[in-house]
Protein: Epithelial membrane protein 2
Amino acid sequence: MLVLLAFIIIFHITSAALLFVATIDNAWWVGEEFFADIWRVCINNTNCTEINDTFTGYSMLQAVQATMILSTILCCVAFLIFVLQLFRLKQGERFVLTSIIQLMSCLCVMIAAAIYTDRREDLHKDNLNFYRLISDGTYGYSFILAWVAFAFTFVSGLMYLILRKRK
Structure:
């Protein structure tokens, strides 16, 4: 039972780490001479421009930022509630509250990655002065980590739903 508990804790911490990296790091869209994320656009690793309300489609990026931050917060809250439920639940009960919060985190990261996937091309076309080299770019590792975090939080949420407290 301790091995299962350790696996669940490590899996949850890994999910949170993936969410932190995907939210903070600057690699949602990368190319040879530039990289961009939901916070800024950098050309030649030196010329960085913060994304602000002068960008066309800024509200879309704010939605992505907000849902990624919310997802990370919910994942951390779910972990804290899981630890509390380990000591407070009666034997045989399920970790439903932890599961619900973790699945909400999953939903938030899915929404953020889906919005970015759908609106990225329009964002780049509408802001050519910031995204000059868009045709050479590809999705970066932060974007991929966001989708991996979606899968991890989904599996974690299902594990909590199925899991019962044992002695």
Notes: The helical segments are 2-24, 58-88, 96-126, 141-162. The first strand starts at residue 29 and ends at 30.
